[in-house]
Amino acid sequence: MPFGRREGRRRLLLSAALGALTVAVAARSAPANPSLEGTEPAGRVAPALPEGSPAAEEPVEPRPAPPGLPAAEAPAAGAEASPEEAEEPEPPAVPDPLRGWNRLMFTVNDRLYFWVLKPVARGYKAVTPAPLRIGLKNFFHNLATPVRFLNNALQGKVRGAGIELGSFMINSTLGLFGLLDWTGSDPELQVPDEDTGQTLGRWGIGPGLYVVWPLFGPSTLRDTVGMVADWNLDPVVYVEPRAAFGINTGRKVNDLSFRLGDYESLKEAAIDPYEAVRDAYLQYRAGQIEK
Amino acid sequence: MRTLARFASALLVALALLSGASAATGSAKASIEGPVESVLSILRDPKYAKGAPALREEQFKKIREIIGGLFDYEEICARAAGKNWAGFTPAQKTAFTDAFTELLSNTYIRKIQSNFHSEKVVFLSEEALPNGRASVRTRVVREGGDVPVDYNLNVKGGNWRIYDIHVEGVSLIQNYRSQFSQILLKESPDQLIERIRKRNKEEPKQ
After folding, report:
1. Could you say which of A63, A258, A269 has the minimum Cβ distance to residue B145?
2. Does the beta carbon of A134 lie under 8 angstroms from any beta carbon of chain B?
């Protein structure tokens, strides 16, 4: 039974990785700085000070902290200098001690996108009719229901979990194995996509630090743990590994065929594309966790 | 009877003044709904489809004219520069504002010009924010899924002006602020302005 053995190994690997990373994240975020949690950053306090308080005016900002030191969070406190920003607290800074590696991987992924992924997705889009691409997108979205259902449940989102489960049942049957999305067009049935990284965030685990993975792109320690867990909740993981790789590549190319040009827009409008992607990712995830 | 008539007319005048005052600002949603619709109709105009460079330029100028007055550039620049803004000299502030404004209008207008695929914009709701500000929620409807786009507005000179745009929950201005603050850690404001200018001179890629 090679299948069973492989499964066992994979589970072991997963739990080991989960354990190690959770410890790493907890160790990093918990004692160092509670503002990492993102709910009540020190920034909220600032507007209560008299306007343009001298503390906020101070030009010295010990920002370029040595990698990994909690000092990297310090700017969050002084960031609310101008009173206009009172209504939007600056998101807490996520440290980037792996900047050297991250920038390198950013470049690798950038090349990979322009040299391989984009031409493939463009060619695919040109020869594949839109209804088929949408069907495949729906199919994979339906297939990944366990990820969203479980994470809705783990966050106590009963309505979300119910809608995910109901959609799955309807679309898997009436929707021909999920190729048709009957519930997607109903505004009443729209719930945000939940994943394990968001659940961990809800549970108070901070992002830890920013990391860029080859192929998978921007992430944080917490979201990396979440990503590994999500893979294991996705039924595709239960097919033969090489086939799973093929399926996931296909899924990625199909998804990309709808988003061609988005990355280019972000990159071309940026002065520092690495920093723009980093900030966009962190803002996006913080927003998802809040929802 | 006379006094009553006078009172009634005074009331009418007061009401007219009141409605006039509110018409000056009106709703934040209404203030961008019209311009967005006109931009979309220019983008849809078959006259410009796959047009010559001269026509593209004409389309670009038309769009810029419509949306140019919608933004509060002063606030946008102050926010994008963040806490470093206080350290800019007046000359640097002007240079930065010019360069950054050009970056925003050039990159984004040219991008929607070349990347427009008959998207529609649905205006959802308007929400009041503290300090008389407002957020207008919209969805851009496109193939393969909608994109939520929210506009933050404030009142400047009796008109609603956009000072930030959130795409999928990502604040554009915060995104620039994080880039600029990283650059300003190591470089001077002049060097930052030079970088933006250099970016503006680059040819838009397809």
Report:
1. A258
2. yes
